[in-house]
Design a protein that fits this description.
Shape of chain A: globular
Radius of gyration of chain A: 13 Å
Largest interface: A-B, 23 and 20 residues
Number of strands of chain B: 11
Low-confidence stretches of chain B: none
Strand content of chain B: over 45%
Oligomer: heterodimer
Low-confidence stretches of chain A: none
Structural class of chain B: mainly beta
């Protein structure tokens, strides 16, 4: 199984801050990496696919980068509505998710 | 707009079989472009993919659950279903159904709202 390690597990930032989350794969997964946002009590929502491609309708303050084993998800200017838990998901082999990063407002 | 809706018992006894159905509306489950998947989330924890099915009935499962999981499809009802046998408290989770794109990119792009299944006597 490919393991996905996300960090940090939680963070607190101010509105307008730049927020960065990392995801590390246990082996090379090329760019087969997606990012999801999950708000409390809701289903996850796809934000980024293939490591860096923004899903249609997703605000441009969200971005992703990386390839191989190391990936980064960035919110360029944190907004109150971005409070959520963010998950990475690889699909090089069978789909697996990272442990999640809970983003809170300071 | 594609919509998915999970349905099934919210309480299952230990050692019994959990059964859920996902009804798809606003699109055909028989589309050649998509698989249809189940993902679960224990309370306060992360996401775990359970398995996915193609409209033809072709399936693939998470190896950690494979011995207990059966996913089936009913194209006439535009539904797919999950059965998880011999459940324990560790199977208590919110269960989501989702459309699983597996062409050009591989993502879960439409999700149901989720349904909480509690395993308890």
């Amino acid at each position: 199984d490919i393991q996905m390690t996300q960090s940090p597990s939680s963070l607190s930032a101010s509105v307008g801050d730049r927020v960065t989350i990392t995801c590390q794969a246990s082996q090379d997964i090329s760019n087969y990496l997606n990012w999801y946002q999950q708000k409390p009590g809701k289903a996850p929502k796809l934000l980024i696919y293939d490591a860096s491609n923004l899903e249609t309708g997703v605000p441009s303050r969200f971005s992703g980068s990386g390839s191989g084993t190391d990936f980064t998800f960035t919110i360029s200017s944190l907004q109150p509505e971005d409070i959520a838990t963010y998950y990475c998901q690889q699909y090089d082999n069978l789909p697996t998710f990272g442990g999640g990063t809970k983003v809170e407002i300071k | 707009q594609l919509q998915l809706q999970e349905s099934g018992p919210g309480l299952v006894k230990p050692s019994e079989t959990l059964s859920l159905t996902c009804t798809v509306s606003g699109g055909s489950i028989s589309s050649s472009s998509y698989y249809w998947g189940w993902i679960r989330q224990p309370p306060g924890k992360g996401l775990e993919w359970i398995g996915s099915i193609y409209y033809s009935g072709s399936t693939y499962y998470n190896p950690s659950l494979k011995s207990r999981v059966t996913i089936s499809v009913d194209t006439s009802k535009n539904q797919f279903s999950l059965k998880l046998s011999s459940v324990t408290a560790a199977d208590t989770a919110v269960y989501y159904c989702a459309r699983h794109v597996r062409r050009a990119k591989e993502v879960f792009d439409y999700w149901g709202q989720g349904t909480l299944v509690t395993v308890s006597s």
